[in-house]
Amino acid sequence: MKRRSRAIRALMIIGLLALSALLQAQGQSERPEVLTVVTWGGAYEDSQRRAYFEPFTEATGIEIETVHYDGGVKVLREHVASGEIEWDVIDMIQSDASTACDDGLLESIDPQILAPAPDGTPPQEDFMEGAIHRCFITQIVFSTVIAFDNRAFPGVKPDSVEDFFDLEAFPGKRGLRKSPTGLLEWALLSLAVPREQLYDLLSTRRGLELASGRLDDIREAIIWWTRGDEPVELLTSGQAAMATGYNGRFFHARAMEGAPISVIWDGQLIGFNSWTILRGTAQADLAAEFIAFATRAENMAAQANLISYGPARKSAQRRVGLHTDAGVPMRPYLPTAPSHMDNAVVRDHHWYSQTDGLREQWFREWLER
Amino acid sequence: MDRIGVQHIVYQIILVTVVAIVVGTAASLAAIGFVDAVHYLNDRLLISPYARVLAEDRPGLVAAATLIVPAAGGLIVGLVVHFLVREKRGLAPPDAILAAQTSGPAPGFRSGVASSLAALVSLGSGASVGQYGPLVYLGAMFGNLAGRLRLNLRHQRSIAIACGVAAAISTAFNAPIAGLVFAHEVILRHYSLRAFAPVTVAAATGYIIANVIFDRPALFLVSFDRVEHSYEFVFFALEGVLCAGLAWVFMLLLRFSTNISRRHIAVPWVRPAIAGLMVGLVALWIPEVLGIGQETLRFATIEGAFGIGELGLIIVAKLVLTALCVGFGFVGGVFSPALLIGILFGAFYGLMLPYLAPVPHSGLEVYAICGMMALASSVIGAPLTTILIVFELTRSYDLTIAAMVAVVFANLISYRVIGRSLFDLQLRERGFDLSLGRDKAILETHRIRDYLSTNVTTVSERDTVGDVRQRLVDDHRSEAMVLNRDQKLLGVVRLQGIVNSQADTPVLETAIQSFTTFDEDTSVWQSMEMLRGFLGEAVPLVDRRGRLKGVVPEEAVIRAYLEIMHDLREEENEAA
């Protein structure tokens, strides 16, 4: 009797295990195989691939497909308006994310998905202030900086924003992003406006006119770029003597490829990139799962060891060490390194998100002048 | 020195330091809170350019706010001042000066809080008034509170008030030395080691709180290399003279505006609302007139930000509207508007100079800064403070020396044309005249009734000479006061005047009818003036109905003078 009941129990357990395995297999077969992440390409995307995409695929079996993006909210509006939502996760500049959130283009993200720091610190305390938002999770601190081709200035080197506008002392073409982002700040910084007052002054018609006048001084020398990897090409190819661009790209070009590029940290424009989920995606849960994975401290630190962008959580910052391939200490190259912060401008995301139309109109009019 | 003496000194030093730190901290925190609250209101009420640009997609809302907010703010200010401030006006630096200079009662705490609230609404709603006046009064208010404590410290109130003011200025400008000097130059009006030490501690406390703890941005940052040409100092001096003229125009407009409002608008609490409406109407066309104008201040130092015509227009608009706002009862200072008008005028002068004197110049910035400080120093009567503000903010000797030349020439002229400052003018209108020196002004604030003696021989109008003569002999006096049944003083009888008179002569026939009398409001200064050519023992003091209250002996008037002077000299010369 006793032996019989044991056999029944064993059969039941086997049955349950089989059922469970069946259900799991069925579940797996229902899971999508591909998650689409919209991001910025180049060395930045490579760092993401190694730090986030590949480990995520390895852990879950889900492939990451990337779509190239150059910033802004307009493309999101068009994509959503098309009715065929193919994007899941988007890596956005915080001000764009804020605007897109206000416009109802993004899904809400439950902060409960975020993992605590390895020492157990809750995410709310571990992430920098303002990083956890209803619609986005800020992940990196990046910087838009001015860099120059060392070969263009064999003698005295430029070292300030003012030098960028001084074609007499530092002749040569200037590479600038074709967008009203950063131009205004640099134009006023070159006129000795203190960084604390930049956005107050740019809020006036007079401030915009003043910036326009300053940009007029270099209008003939400007080469416009749109993709993040272009400024490096402009400098390495000798097409431009100076260019604005993302600090991580310049770091990568110099550290990994030996490009003769130097960065001017004066007036570096600090910005933040955030993970968002596009409204209407059928894979919102999976997108959230990816964000939870990518914002783990060890993964964020892994990216910072590949490209010089600062992680947005303290526990990740503490883990930043040597470049994974080059063995270069990464901390001195982060935008948040103390020596780089003296004249840094923290981009006012609120101002940016609210003045989208105004800036676009100003820029269009200035281009047409 | 014995042990008790040492203990007393240690007690004094510790207590003075504690008072300075506590008052300095309170004034500094209040100043920071006040400025932040103004910014908050400016943002919420669509007054600041930052807030206005964020709402640029709703131009109707911005235009409506431009019109309605200053007018509604004016109405609130009018009501607060009329119903909550006992003095029925905004409290300002002249009240701080008066409280520090005299021992009389200062405006109460409730009035001070209500006045600060009115200033907050004024500035928050975009009125063209300044924030430093209210900050100075806030500092003085905390000093006055500390002055009331029974700490057994000499000159406690005036020093505590100076501490509060120094901390407020130090916080507002990130300029501790300027705060220290302002408290001495404008509030205390003398320099002494007794005041110097605690006021320095308070100014440093304000600086530490503002600059180290809260990391407040400076009012302005200017990078200036040097004055390129020596002949430019002549231009700076000329600029100073012109700024004195502009300060004079500003004062005239202020007086004119005050008179107009009092004559033509009967209901006092409506006046600020009318001024606010005018500000709103002008701001639809020239938004630079709204509020403190920190952006405009900055633009004035940048080459190419303004055209000459634009500058002229904004200067006139700002001058007229500031006079209108202050004269019509908005609560706020004149220092910030003077800085703004001055810097705009300096920029205007810098732009005009190439046409007037076609020789090389050192650029617009230096002329803008010189104009700012020259005009402000003429208005507030603090040349040393303004020079120090330039130095502490810019750390540039060249810029400071250029500003110094402009400030000195501005003050040379304005002192003779206007007087020492707007504050002194306002005090003179209240009967406290500092123009003839601190001694006279303080003697004017002390009443001679405090030295009243009731040891007096009084006689009835029905008494005879004989009765009076006997009474005077008995009292060992040489004069008597003749009173009627209602105690009203009818005359003074002197012994030498009745010595040869018949004993049965009615005393009233021999009494002197024309004699010197003091009343309850006679000041020590007036009593001294009235004693010129006085022959007699004592001066009778009568109330408003002419009834005798007592007499003030000649000796008491001299004693009053000596005591007050001794106190003053002690305050000015004693060590801490």
UniProtKB/TrEMBL annotation, chain B:
Gene Ontology terms, MF aspect: chloride channel activity
InterPro entries found in the cross-reference section: CBS_dom, CBS_dom_sf, Cl-channel_core, ClC, ClC-type_chloride_channel
Membrane topology type: Multi-pass membrane protein
Matching Pfam families: CBS, Voltage_CLC
Compartment(s) where it occurs, according to its Swiss-Prot or TrEMBL record: Membrane
Gene Ontology CC annotation, any one: chloride channel complex
Keyword Ion transport: yes
Segments forming domain CBS: 452-510, 511-568
Key words of the record: CBS domain, Chloride, Chloride channel, Ion channel, Ion transport, Membrane, Transmembrane, Transmembrane helix, Transport
Residues annotated as transmembrane: 12-41, 61-85, 117-139, 159-183, 195-214, 234-254, 266-286, 306-331, 338-360, 366-390, 397-418
Record SMART domains: CBS
PANTHER family assigned: CHLORIDE CHANNEL PROTEIN CLC-E
The name this protein goes by in its record: Chloride channel protein
